[in-house]
Design a protein that fits this description.
single chain, 342 residues, mainly alpha, Chitinase A, domain 3, 3-stranded antiparallel beta sheet, 9 strands, 49% helix, disordered N terminus
Length: 342
């Protein structure tokens, strides 16, 4: 399991090092406008480095029937319009909005936007904006990122993961797919032992239910919600084994308690059962009620198949990046980082 989690963290490092481009690649760069499935592969050579690549691809030839407008002789093509429509569709989907086909009037508005974009581009060049240092630096940043994204997407298409590789990884790392037992709990927190003893007597006597009593007397942050804890409770050692950090655990809806409270909670043997009152590290007294228990179980291979396949793809991507670094001389001047403007 430890090796599995280390691999998972290495995969996260890959995503960070590749930046936003990798996130687009893994999370849906197929929706981006330049993801043309019909493009040729003659230009996509993994052997080219950034230094060897041309500043920009040569201008494509446009068939007369695909010309939608000309702006001082510059062509706005059908492909330009399609790329813009794909951008708009991606923006709509990211905002959870359903994309619908545009009307003829709306298409004309998008075409007008493209014409205006070309006009502004031409005027920027006429004013010499393309020759300023700031523009050159930003253009180089965009150029580098664009071709890096093309590299990432090309490798996504070519670095296939065979079913046998997924099978082997699952079998070799079965412990990493074990889900420990976990609990949903309500809690009552009081300051004094006498209060805890009295509350426990009321609960066992059936004179009140746990949620109502929590609302009345609990000092815990979830008192208004009947004392129900917002996360699943997992044993601290198992949580540390599964998750790289507390942030990762909380993102997955998992928490742990200090040892004395944990022992009391996991000692409850049935749903709606009660713990004894226990003094916590906060010097307050806690009583727990078990709301739900999920027993320890093994995640089946088919349930994690896609995750494992994606992870192995990331490993292969890391290997491809390592191969590039092995062929390249990289000089780093980290002492200059302190002078970077943030």
């Amino acid at each position: 399991m430890g090796d599995h989690m280390n691999d998972k963290r290495r995969a996260q490092t890959i995503l960070w090092s590749c930046g936003f481009l990798s996130l687009l690649l893994i999370a849906g760069c197929d929706k981006l406008p330049w993801n043309a499935k019909s493009r040729g592969e003659s230009h996509a050579s993994s052997g080219l480095t950034t230094a060897q690549s041309s500043p920009a691809p040569s201008k494509p030839q446009v068939l007369p029937g695909d010309v939608l407008a000309t702006v001082n002789g510059a062509v706005v093509s059908k492909k330009d319009l399609e790329l813009r429509l794909q951008e708009l569709k991606t923006l709509a989907e990211s905002a959870d909005q359903a994309g619908t086909p545009l009307t003829r009037e709306q298409l004309e508005q998008v075409l007008e936007e493209l014409i205006n974009t070309e006009l502004m581009s031409q005027d920027a060049a006429a004013r010499g904006l393309d020759r300023s240092l700031d523009v050159a630096q930003r253009w180089e940043y965009v150029r580098r990122g664009f071709f890096a994204q093309e590299w990432l997407r090309w490798h996504q298409e070519h670095l296939s993961v065979a079913p046998e590789e997924v099978d082997k990884y699952y079998e070799d790392n079965k412990a990493g797919f074990r889900v420990p037992s976990r609990l949903r709990l309500r809690q009552i927190v009081v300051a004094l032992e006498e209060q805890a003893n009295r509350a426990l007597s009321q609960l066992h006597g059936g004179t009140t239910d746990f949620a109502n009593l929590a609302q009345q007397i609990s000092l815990g942050p979830t008192a208004a919600k009947g004392g129900e804890l917002p996360f699943w409770l997992m044993r601290a050692n198992e949580k540390a084994f599964l998750y790289g950090s507390e942030t990762d655990a909380q993102a997955d809806g998992v928490m742990s308690l200090d040892p004395s409270l944990e022992a009391a909670a996991f000692a409850i043997d049935k749903v709606n059962g009660l713990s004894s009152y226990v003094k916590g590290a906060d010097s307050q007294y806690h009583i727990f009620q078990l709301v739900e228990r999920q027993e320890e179980h093994q995640r089946e291979k088919q349930a994690v198949w896609d995750d494992v396949k994606s992870f192995l793809s990331l490993q292969k991507l890391r290997e491809a990046i390592d191969t590039l670094q092995g062929k390249t001389t990289v000089e780093r001047f980290t002492d200059r980082l302190e002078h970077v403007t943030q």
